[in-house]
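ping. complex inputs:
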Amino acid sequence: MRIGFIGLGNMGGPMAANLAAAGHDVRGHDTAAPMPDGVNAADSAADAAMQADVVITMLPDGAVLRAVADQVLPAMTPGAVLLDCSTVDVDSARAVAAQAADREVHALDAPVSGGVVGATAGTLTFMVGGRAEALVTVQPLLDVMGGRTVHCGPAGNGQAAKICNNMILGATMAVTCEAFALADKLGLDRQAMYDVASTSSGQSWSLTTYCPAPGIGPQSPADNDYKPGFAAELMVKDMRLAMQAADAVDAATPVGAEALRQYAEFVETEDGRGRDFSALLLRSSRDRRH
Ligand code: NAD
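pong. complex structure:
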């Protein structure tokens, strides 16, 4: 297929390289990042989109996505697919889908989980919102970049699934960190706490796959001085998107809001920036003051 790929950063770079390596004709554009192996440089976003069967975007946020959509949609062929893999707010995803429909372009929101490791290995999970016919068109590309695709419903529902998932992740990690800090103060050995909770009702992905305590459970960023992994500031971004969406539909998310406050203070006023989000354990372990 002929593909335009816009946003070739930490995630988009390896995703585009995998598509090129699979034999697709990929034309890329980024305002800063270099062209990945096998990707031909376009002069602009519109140039990358011209005559493409599929235009893929992997951009920082909804404002950038809307600006790029303004540039690429007029250049796209009717019937082509705009596949946005960025994590953005639900409103931006739905606005771009409506704008695309006006030009007879199909739009899919398809945020991912799996991080840079999954992008490089081609094992991402895609959560897709939009029409099933457009998903059929892009499925061969998703199969190159990822291992699993879940169709979540109409436009915006991929983003909705992503922020719900990450709100669960953020809150379970925060309370897992608190449990380790509480165990310390109660004189309970961390390994003993892990051995009980990992096989009891306190079990979660945050505990058993991504344990925030160094030396406990499987290898995780905690064992690598909390190098990300998934940076704490990205967790703040995703949890802010969840709170914004909750406000928009009047959903009560007090636990999510408190978890966000913990990560935001860790990143903005403490030493959390540049660390993995599981480093929140360092904050939880300090004496009570929050
Ligand atoms: P990144 O900052 O490394 O890449 C974004 C790229 O977009 C940059 O190279 C930037 O130069 C480019 N860009 C910005 N404005 C542009 C414009 N107007 N035109 C063209 N290019 C432009 O970020 P990333 O880590 O690759 O993340 C991309 C998206 O994926 C984000 O929405 C992020 O939330 C999401 N995501 C990231 C991870 C992760 O672990 N990094 C995991 C899942 C989802």
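The chain has twelve helices and nine strands.
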